[in-house]
Amino acid sequence: MALAKTADDHVSFSPREASEKDLALAVLVHRISSLPKESLADLAELAPELARCEDARTFSEITETIREIMFPELIGDLKVGKAGDTNATANLKRRIEWIAAKIKEERGNAALTQKQLAEKSNLPQSHISRLEAGKHSPSFKTLERLAQALGISVGELDPAN
Amino acid sequence: MKIRTRTAKELEPSRPALWKLAYLDAAASDARRFLTEDQYAHVVQQFDDLAASRDPRRSETQDVRPIDDWYELREKGGLLGKINVRVYFAVLDARNLLVILACYKKEDEGQTAKHIMIKVRNRLRQAKKILEETERG
To answer: Are strands B3-5 and A78-80 parallel, antiparallel or unpaired?
Structure first.
């Protein structure tokens, strides 16, 4: 047998004699034993989660996490800078422009200055200015606050509606 | 693993970034798995906003909540439709850096699942390790 326990309880391994299964197991054992203690603690926490798991999505997520702990290179590099080209999508640009015009229109209907709208919505005036200039895609939180301040529904600030 | 510096597009001249942004490859992959290009670009813009804010932990314009040693940006509706996105990021004050760690599509109510917490915790460890190794040169 390729894997045999010695008197010291270390598993001795003979690569020449090992089957593929034994080889894979030996690599895993070596990998796990060389993990830092925080990673071992994480694996220990994940094992019962995996055992308890009842749906395919969660199972997949847990095994992905286990892989990343055991093989950190799977996480990839750390890149400095934006995570994408935010000016690249024409659809997003159209959406931003629509929302910009809508906010300005509704602000006019409510007879509010930008400053007044900022105070009423608890948003920075600079942010409202940017939105009306079509320079940013507003978050849901921002749209909610604006809608409330303008006395309209959030849906009215969404071009999809 | 290493840091690779991409050419950073400049924000509007009147709005300098107060924080540098960084992201793990795995975080970008997470997001691209379930977001369209438009949705991805929208989420990236939310981080532009955070990077330009004084304190990204206490944003007036984004839904940001503390979790463990990092933070969670929550975004939904509008362009995202029914998708409930959670983006996990760390704030490293000493480096003036926001590090995007993971992106997740939340499909149920309730707290963040334990395995997601462990994933983010592991990625934060790896991100810090990469930064330290880069500094050592």
So the answer is: parallel
Query: Do B125 and A64 count as a contact with CB atoms less than 8 A apart?
Result: no
Residues of A in contact with B115 (CB under 8 A): 46, 49, 58, 61-62, 65
Q: What letters, b where the CB count within 10 A reaches 16 and e where it falls short, cover B95-128?
A: eebbbbbbbbebeeeeebbebbbbbbbbbbbbbe
Residue B85's alpha-carbon distances to A1, A114, B7, B48, in angstroms, are: 51, 30, 27, 17
For an interface test with A, the pick among B25, B122, B129 (most A C-beta atoms closer than 10 Å) comes out as B122
Q: What is the value of pTM for the model shown?
A: 0.86
Q: Give B98's DSSP letter.
A: E
With CA atoms as reference, report the closest residue to B86 among B24, B38, B41, B31.
B31
Measured between CB atoms, does B50 come within 8 Å of chain A? no
The residue type of A95 is R
Least CB-CB distance to B45: which of A46, A86, A158? A86
B123 in A contact zone (CB under 8 Å):
yes
Q: Tell me: ipTM over 0.90.
A: no
* Conformational region of residue B89, where left means phi above 0, alpha means psi within -120 to 50, and beta covers everything else: beta
Q: How does pLDDT run across B113-128, given as a tens digit for each residue? A: 999 999 999 999 999 9
> How far is the C-alpha of A43 from the C-alpha of B9, rounded, in Å?
39
Min Cα separation B58/chain A (Å): 13
How many residues comprise chain B? 137
Could you give the C-alpha distances from B93 to A8, A93, B97, B115, B122, in angstroms and in order? 48, 33, 6, 26, 19
